[in-house]
Amino acid sequence: MALSKLDNLYRQVILDHSSRPHHYGELHGGETVDLNNPTCGDVIKLTMQVDDDRITDIAFNGSGCSISTASASLMTDAVIGKTKAEALELADIFSKMVQGEVDARQKKLGDVTLLSGVAKFPQRIKCATLAWHALEKAVESENDSAAIGHLSGH
């Protein structure tokens, strides 16, 4: 695929998922994480329901730039039905991908790989990874108490 077509596809995916995000809203019950990116002001509240170590439902809300919202939307699609370990693996692969690292496991991300273009814009990496960091915190949470935090590093 020509580079300009790939860039166009990247832009279209961002626009589609940011204007009509999947799994946007709130869930009652489950593990909840609130995170913000103080660098740009993106804020996310992620709620995840788990049954027998498998993510059965997930939702997010908050406010953020188009990349932050699109990434959260794509992430929720990618992790529903996955085990906690599988979700953490996807978060690791995603983090490496948006930092420009090549990982043979990248194909596991499916449509999320369309966000690989973020690597061209280092200042937007925190925007793209905010939802994924919230996912990691939710998965790693050992109880249903809310976690609140700030994204300060990669």
TrEMBL record:
Q: Name one Pfam family in it.
A: NifU_N
Q: Where is the NIF system FeS cluster assembly NifU N-terminal domain?
A: 10-127
Q: Which residues form a coiled coil?
A: none
Query: Domain of life, per the record?
Result: Bacteria
- By its UniProt entry, which InterPro entries does this protein fall under? NIF_FeS_clus_asmbl_NifU_N (IPR002871)
Name of this chain's protein = SUF system NifU family Fe-S cluster assembly protein
This chain's source organism reads Pseudolactococcus carnosus
